[in-house]
């Protein structure tokens, strides 16, 4: 369980976080929801210690984290797995080396044990066989999977995901969401996900925190979110729905266009073909059957 | 300016707190030494050979007095090469090649959150990424400078003898005349100081990159500019103090 209390953060004159508090439960996918620029990612970075909050505290399973001794913070950090928005895979390492990296740095495992764990994690995220590929050779969705594998490799207790489905198509995004949810429940870890995607809320959000202009305006479950009377949240849901509908229409139009273009050459070919009533030229008799070579080469093997 | 220098000192301090195990750092240092050293041999060889050749031809052109022995050309090539050209010009060339590579690499890691990924794992990213680069540069630069000295003198020999400015015997006599071994020590001290300046300044610029691809380019440029200025200032200070 992660508890945050009264987190404040200011960059220059801009107040990004204004007294955010909350409890993120173990074994559940906790979502930090909000539009762009509301301080979700900053809050996440404050929780993991990448950004120091101006005020407030973070507690991991009862252990105070913010401003605690360096070795205690290090100890907690070694239990943290994080999936970054751009995956943050190490460019110079293969997929296998990326997943092996935290095991090499944080555990006393020997090479065989590490490889066993790497293969297990890659299999768990559906990437068996991709061991030797470089990050530049794999797709965005695969990168996210490798990022998840790297995060869970050292048996993390806390999993943080910064916009895990950004830049992915809806189907891949859904798969990534489902994978995170499965892993959270399977290993009983505390997961916090930053998102602005209502699909994620509907699919995997056990507990949702809605941020608006640096403040937590609402928290609740995915069943409660539709019944809220908070104007900003309703506006956000409405805008998200409009965007989703627009995307859906756009996608349908694109599919129709593709289908039309796909059929067009076939129709043109049909137009060029001789009419049905035109008698075909007599075909030369082929004693070796239809599979044998013709003069046009159409059946060439 | 003063604020940047303060940040640079704090950055250097951060390299030595909560270091990773010696085994891991040793492995990374060897990797970096290969990257910095092996990949720089070609450019150092080309630059040094031609610098030696040009020095020899230009000295010969200026020494047209019949009372000055031709072996003086070899003597001057050696002195200029060992004292100044090999350590300083090699370091300036390496500031362009190695410095921009270090700053660009670290800058890219910073903007793609790879540095954050290390920090989240509880690894001191500055120590893990930068310390091996600095140690590797300090190890490799003196070797490159020794190679540069040898090739410069060889370049001078080839240019002088092929062009007929002096005989091989005259050149070798000049090279061996009045040799001061301390000059080699001085050149190696310079190479170590320049290695530290280039690797640490470039790492500092790269590590503190924020923004996007444009800022990575700016960090590389700034790393090279700052390193070259630091080399020239360092060159003067060392010459003043040690000679």
From TrEMBL, chain A:
It comes from the Bacteria. Residues 2-238 form the ABC transporter domain. Pfam families: ABC_tran (PF00005). Residues 248-301 are annotated as: Disordered. GO terms for molecular function: ATP binding; ATP hydrolysis activity. InterPro entries: AAA+_ATPase, ABC_transporter-like_ATP-bd, ABC_transporter-like_CS, P-loop_NTPase. Keywords: ATP-binding, Nucleotide-binding, Transport. This is Phospholipid/cholesterol/gamma-HCH transport system ATP-binding protein. It comes from Pontibacter ramchanderi.
Automatic annotation (TrEMBL), chain B:
Coiled coil: none annotated. It holds the Pfam family MlaE. One of its GO terms (molecular function) is phospholipid transporter activity. InterPro entries: Permease_MalE. Keywords: Membrane, Transmembrane, Transmembrane helix. GO terms for cellular component: ATP-binding cassette (ABC) transporter complex. The chain crosses the membrane at residues 33-61, 134-159, 180-201, 221-242. The keyword RNA-binding does not apply. Signal peptide: none annotated. The keyword Oxidoreductase does not apply. This is Phospholipid/cholesterol/gamma-HCH transport system permease protein. It comes from Pontibacter ramchanderi.
């Amino acid at each position: 369980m992660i508890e945050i209390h009264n987190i404040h953060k200011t960059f220059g004159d801009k107040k990004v976080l204004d007294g955010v508090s909350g409890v993120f439960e173990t074994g559940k996918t906790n979502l930090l929801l909000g539009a762009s620029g509301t301080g979700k990612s900053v809050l996440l970075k404050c929780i993991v210690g990448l950004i120091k909050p101006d005020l407030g505290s973070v507690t991991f399973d009862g252990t105070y984290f913010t401003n605690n001794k360096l070795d205690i913070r290090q100890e907690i950090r070694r239990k943290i797995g994080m999936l970054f928005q751009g995956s943050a895979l190490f460019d110079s390492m293969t997929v296998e080396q990326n997943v092996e990296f935290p095991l090499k740095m944080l555990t006393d495992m020997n090479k065989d044990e590490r490889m066993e764990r790497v293969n297990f994690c890659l299999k768990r995220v559906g990437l068996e066989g991709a061991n030797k590929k470089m990050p530049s050779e794999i797709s965005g969705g695969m990168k996210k999977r490798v990022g998840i594998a790297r995060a869970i490799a050292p048996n993390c207790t806390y999993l943080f995901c910064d916009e895990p489905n950004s830049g992915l198509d809806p189907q891949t995004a859904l798969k990534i969401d489902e994978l995170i949810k499965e892993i959270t429940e399977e290993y009983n870890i505390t997961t916090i996900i930053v998102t602005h995607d209502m699909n994620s809320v509907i699919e995997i959000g056990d507990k949702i925190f809605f941020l608006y202009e640096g403040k937590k305006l609402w928290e609740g479950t995915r069943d409660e979110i539709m019944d809220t009377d908070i104007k900003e949240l309703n506006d956000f849901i409405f805008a998200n729905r409009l965007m989703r509908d627009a995307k859906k229409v756009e996608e349908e139009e694109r599919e129709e266009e593709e289908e039309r273009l796909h059929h067009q050459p076939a129709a043109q070919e049909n137009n060029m073909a001789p009419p049905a009533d035109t008698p075909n030229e007599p075909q030369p008799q082929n004693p070796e059957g239809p599979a044998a070579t013709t003069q046009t080469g159409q059946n060439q093997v | 300016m003063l604020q940047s220098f303060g940040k640079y000192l704090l950055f250097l301090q951060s390299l030595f707190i909560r270091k990773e195990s010696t085994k891991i750092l040793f492995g990374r240092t060897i990797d970096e030494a290969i990257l910095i050293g092996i990949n720089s041999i070609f450019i150092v060889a080309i630059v040094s050979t031609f610098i030696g050749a040009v020095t020899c031809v230009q000295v010969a052109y200026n020494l047209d007095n019949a009372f000055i022995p031709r072996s003086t050309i070899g003597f001057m090539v050696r002195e200029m090469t060992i004292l100044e050209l090999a350590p300083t010009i090699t370091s300036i060339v390496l500031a362009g090649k190695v410095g921009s590579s270090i700053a660009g690499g670290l800058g890219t890691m910073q903007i793609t959150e790879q540095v954050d990924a290390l920090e989240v794992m509880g690894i001191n990213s500055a120590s893990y990424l930068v310390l091996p680069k600095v140690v590797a540069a300090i190890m490799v630069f003196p070797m490159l400078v020794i190679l540069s000295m040898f090739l410069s003198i060889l370049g001078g020999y080839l240019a002088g003898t092929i062009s007929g400015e002096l005989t091989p015997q005259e050149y070798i006599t000049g090279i061996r005349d009045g040799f001061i071994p301390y000059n080699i020590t001085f050149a190696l001290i310079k190479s170590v100081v320049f290695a530290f300046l280039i690797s640490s300044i470039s790492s500092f610029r790269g590590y503190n990159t924020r923004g996007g691809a444009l800022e990575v380019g700016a960090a590389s440029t700034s790393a090279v500019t700052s390193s070259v200025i630091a080399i020239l200032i360092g060159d003067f200070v060392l010459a003043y103090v040690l000679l």
